[in-house]
């Protein structure tokens, strides 16, 4: 990656849709704002030692990652992080708690069965989290320490969710296409709404897989 360090005015680096499996060397770049690494074959990424203090948009979508890139928690300037279409089975928001400017996090089309959001160690400015098209069976939103957070968790297999014990800091929740749909879009809907139970609760599982695979095919 040192090859790119000589381009001092470079603000965007796009290495998407190749067959890259490994990142060698350390990128050190003051001006780089956008780093696009999607559509490769990364199973593990080590960003320790990189210096990109202006990075705002970073994408490792459409790879084979099952863990968050190492040391990305130190990239405090990032506002949008795409980790969608990977192989995550579990995810903890604590892995990104040091990302002080992170606003948008994309985790759709992974293999998530478990996600942990209830922690004081939380990106302080996160506003939007997308977890659509995963395998989540439960969702716990009882403690969310940011002021406003929109969550999209459509087309999972969520059948366990406590509407009455959910944080009012979640200002919008999308749950369509789950066995249990507790969608709300306003504070009044959260306060007075009810969850709908979908009788055809497993009809979406195969559809989810197909949707994510189609996306992989054409991106």
Automatic annotation (TrEMBL):
Listed Pfam families: LRR_8
Tell me the keywords, alphabetical order: Leucine-rich repeat, Repeat
Q: Does the keyword Ligase apply?
A: no
Keyword Repeat belongs to the record: yes
A GO CC annotation recorded here is: extracellular space
Q: Which residues form the signal peptide?
A: none
Q: Which PANTHER family match?
A: AGAP008170-PA, INSULIN-LIKE GROWTH FACTOR-BINDING PROTEIN COMPLEX ACID LABILE SUBUNIT
What protein name is recorded for this chain? Leucine rich immune protein (Coil-less)
Question: What species is this protein from?
Answer: Anopheles christyi
């Amino acid at each position: 990656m040192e090859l790119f360090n000589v381009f001092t005015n470079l603000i965007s680096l796009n290495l998407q849709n190749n067959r890259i499996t490994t990142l060698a060397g350390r990128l050190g770049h003051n001006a780089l704002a956008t780093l696009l690494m999607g559509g490769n074959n990364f199973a593990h990424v080590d960003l320790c030692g990189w210096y990109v203090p202006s990075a705002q948009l970073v994408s490792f979508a459409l790879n084979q990652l099952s863990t968050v890139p190492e040391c990305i928690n130190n990239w405090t300037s990032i506002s949008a992080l795409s980790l969608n279409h990977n192989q995550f089975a579990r995810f903890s928001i604590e892995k990104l708690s040091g990302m002080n400017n992170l606003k948008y996090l994309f985790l759709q089309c992974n293999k998530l069965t478990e996600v942990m959001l209830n922690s004081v160690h939380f990106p302080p400015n996160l506003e939007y989290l997308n977890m659509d098209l995963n395998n989540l069976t439960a969702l716990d939103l009882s403690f969310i320490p940011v002021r406003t957070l929109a969550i999209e968790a459509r087309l999972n297999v969520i059948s366990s969710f406590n509407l009455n014990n959910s944080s009012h800091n979640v200002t919008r929740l999308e749950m369509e296409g789950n066995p249990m749909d507790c969608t709300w879009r306003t504070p009044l809907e959260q306060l007075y709404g009810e969850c709908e139970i979908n009788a055809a609760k497993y009809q979406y599982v195969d559809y989810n897989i197909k949707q994510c695979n189609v996306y992989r095919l054409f991106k």
